[in-house]
Amino acid sequence: xxxxxxxxxxxxxxxxxxxxxxxxxxxxxxxxxxxxxxxxxxxxxxxxxxxxxxxxxxxxxxxxxxxxxxxxxxxxxxxxxxxxxxxxxxxxxxxxxxxxxxxxxxxxxxxxxxxxxxxxxxxxxxxxxxxxxxxxxxxxxxxxxxxxxxxxxxxxxxxxxxxxxxxxxxxxxxxxxxxxxxxxxxxxxxxxxxxxxxxxxxxxxxxxxxxxxxxxxxxxxxxxxxxxxxxxxxxxxxxxxxxxxxxxxxxxxxxxxxxxxxxxxxxxxxxxxxxxxxxxxxxxxxxxxxxxxxxxxxxxxxxxxxxxxxxxxxxxxxxxxxxxxxxxxxxxxxxxxxxxxxxxxxxxxxxxxxxxxxxxxxxxxxxxxxxxxxxxxxxxxxxxxxxxxxxxxxxxxxxxxxxxxxxxxxxxxxxxxxxxxxxxxxxxxxxxxxxxxxxxxxxxxxxxxxxxxxxxxxxxxxxxxxxxxxxxxxxxxxxxxxxxxxxxxxxxxxx
Length: 495
Prior knowledge:
Number of helices: 17
CATH superfamily of the largest domain: Ribokinase
Distance between the termini: 16 Å
Number of domains: 2
Helix content: 40-55%
Structural class: alpha/beta
CATH class of the largest domain: Alpha Beta
Strand content: 15-25%
């Protein structure tokens, strides 16, 4: 599991290296500068002429050191110092003095000449306000240049903690960061400004307790539930899906098939009578329990709950009377693993009393809202959620005592304490039904005994991997939600 840090955590790690390990700050700066220089020469064997743009902080100190190391390689390099002498850190001041002693040209205004490579060492990871004035104008000139742009630690103008972007930010071709990747380098829209991100170790240890978030990878999938040689359909878990309304049979089909493909032994779908033929034709493996009225639905749900190991509710369910009866009954009478998606979340947003019931569950539920659904649950705008996606996810999970899977291009998962960010997947998955597939996959993992948080985290990760496999075979434009299901087996065979 990769550890991601924010600006505060990174500063703490930096200080620990200096105070606990005894590594001088200037040594860490030299290591960082050497790492960037090496990566520049890997990417651009002939980088000259180079312009290094430096601010007044330690990021600028890194830049001065990079300029000196490039000059030592007989590479033509100039430094644009855009900071203020009065606000320079001690390390930055010393590195600037060394450059001056080495006769490296330092200018104050953007030179009217062409450069092959530009190094952005202007602002660093500590940015907490919008970029305006002279810095904004300078960044605009950097972006207008055709030069290959390398950002030191993070492109200037990006908020390292949120992934938000100032009114202007450097669009880098490559970002060389240190010790650990920053949240802003994996969250959109900032991730789109970073180019290729290279993380280099410079002697700063980052421990599990230092992480602001975790990023799952292939090495973590050993935790997926195994299957015993003597397994049968009963021992692999029974999933009850409450899904589908008139005209929405597809959501139920996708969700049920995904649950089966993830390894569930049995999947029962509770759905209106009008969906019976479609489900039995499309997915003959599914058990179909159909109802004709709200009263009939409640009666059949009561029986089905006695059978189930896990319940998923919401895909294509609608918000009519029968849907409310079903969700209310589940919240009042079901105490096992529960996944709520789509219209289940819309019903929750409209009924505060059900959110109270949800929060009181002994075993937390898993909810899977997209940004719009998250906004309705929190009574915020979608933009507010996007601007504060980690805090929104974590705080909602904590206040409601649940696992929140906040779906987006970068899905954020939290149990109210730990935060996980999923980076698998692609824009081809932005199509109807993808969320239904995810719900089925999480239910399938839960049915086989996986812990709630693990099922949410790895369900999202595998869902994205299936999407990546589908894109490789079909391209992003042609993908359908059903293509994700067809690639689940391909992905699972790797592990």
